[in-house]
Amino acid sequence: MPALGVNIDHVATVRQARRTIEPDPVWAAALAELGGADGITLHLREDRRHIQDRDLQVMRQTVQVKLNLEMAAEPEMTAIALQVKPDQVTLVPEKREEVTTEGGLDVVAHADKVKTCIDSLRSAGIEVSLFIDADRQQIEQSRQLDADAVELHTGTYADAPTKAAQQRELEQLVTAADFGIEQELLVHMGHGLTYRNVIPVAEIPGVSELNIGHSIVARAVMVGFEEAVREMKALVSVE
Ligand code: PXP
């Protein structure tokens, strides 16, 4: 059974839309723990579009389950990670103009930069996972670079236009997971997973962690909306 890492970035996206103090992703992280999350995942982006440095610092003090920091393999981010010491860092590619992380990190093309980052983090006792495409060469290279884990990008599976295409993507994930385990890497998966498409991925043998964000935050808004309106209605129901 894979562990569930809950990505709370988009709680911060709503807060940043008004640059206010609510909703607080720290509070969401605590509620995620109450709901059974095995880990809390947050992405401190270079442009700070959602998660802020303060969120990471406070969560380091309050989160009781595994704290997984997603970040770019850049010296600025490495320095922050070494200071805050999350339990795990997941290295992701980052482009300013993208809406979300669009593809896996190319650890073959960026081997030197990634290796420098992995070495500093691992020597500080931080586990390192590499967010890569489900590709044999990328997995092999992750092993060479001494990563602890790979997170296989499930976006192509999630976005597959037909059932047949989705099945092909699933098979590719199964093969890549097997290969990762053979290479003695922990295998995680994530991106684009929803209440409708998650089960076949959760059933892939040997996967130790799933990271899911947008779909959980989207559902939380919906399942909580009616109650939130009821509470406001009670307040405004004055004579
Ligand atoms: N894993 C990684 C490495 C990611 O970058 C993201 C998105 O921040 C996720 C998982 C979660 O993706 P989603 O929000 O689509 O569930």
Number of helices: 10
What fold name goes in the CATH topology slot? TIM Barrel
Mean pLDDT: 96
CATH class: Alpha Beta
Rg is 18 Å
| Unique bound compounds | pyridoxine-5'-phosphate
The SSE string, one letter per element, is EHHEHEHEHEHEHHEHEH
- Largest beta sheet: what is the strand line-up? 1-2-3-4-5-6-7-8
CATH architecture descriptor: Alpha-Beta Barrel
Derived from helix and strand composition plus strand pairing, the structural class reads alpha/beta
What share of residues are in beta strands? 15-25%
Describe this structure in words.
The structure is a single chain. This protein is 48% helix and 18% strand. The protein has helices at residues 9-18, 25-34, 53-62, 75-84, 111-123, 136-144, 155-158, 163-182, 198-202, 214-236, and strands spanning 3-7, 39-43, 66-71, 88-91, 127-132, 149-153, 186-190, 207-212. The chain is globular and about 70 Å long. It has ten helices and eight strands. It starts with a strand and ends with a helix. The chain has one domain (3-236): TIM Barrel.
